[in-house]
Amino acid sequence: MRKKLGLLTLCLFIGTILFGCTSENKGSNADWNANFVVWEGHNYVVTNEDVDKNLVGAKVGTINTSSSNETDVKEGETFSNIFPTGTEIYEIKGVKNTESLAVKNQDGFVKIDYNGEYGK
Questions:
Q1: Which of 14, 96, 90 is nearest to 53 (CA)?
Q2: Per residue in 8-27, pLDDT tens?
Q3: Tally: H helices and E strands in the chain
């Protein structure tokens, strides 16, 4: 009886370690360590590539929330973990919005590349 109880305790301990300590965060960006923008439910990763001002098209949005804490973000908001609230987002002439967008920064415009739907 003691062996069975010991074996059961060991199995429960191992099960807790293996399954209880995993962190699955559904509905979030896969990597909050990367710099990104979420616009209309789509995740865009910030690149190091500048966008020439002559290639910048129409304004398509403004960042509503800037935070490095996912709990601060409301569903459906345009947000970023790098750009401040109020930062403007533009289309790039000749490029589909599902490929890349331009974000205005202090130096001009930086390219952000589509990285799938946010939370999927």
A1: 90
A2: 555 555 555 545 544 444 34
A3: 1, 8
The whole-angstrom separation of Cα 95 and Cα 115 is 15
Measuring CA to CA, which residue among 37, 28, 34, 33 is closest to residue 85? 37
CA–CA dist 88, 86 (Å, integer): 6
105 beta partners: 108
Question: Taking a C-beta distance cutoff of 8 angstroms, is the pair 71, 80 a contact?
Answer: no
Q: Provide the residue ranges of all domains of the chain, joining segments of one domain with +.
A: 32-117
Residue whose C-alpha is closest to residue 45's, from 120, 111, 93 = 111
Coil, helix or strand at residue 72: helix
Distance CA 85, CA 106 (A): 14
Say what the pTM is: 0.72
Q: Based on the number of CB atoms within 10 Å of its own CB, is 42 exposed (0-12), middle (13-18) or buried (19 or more)? A: middle
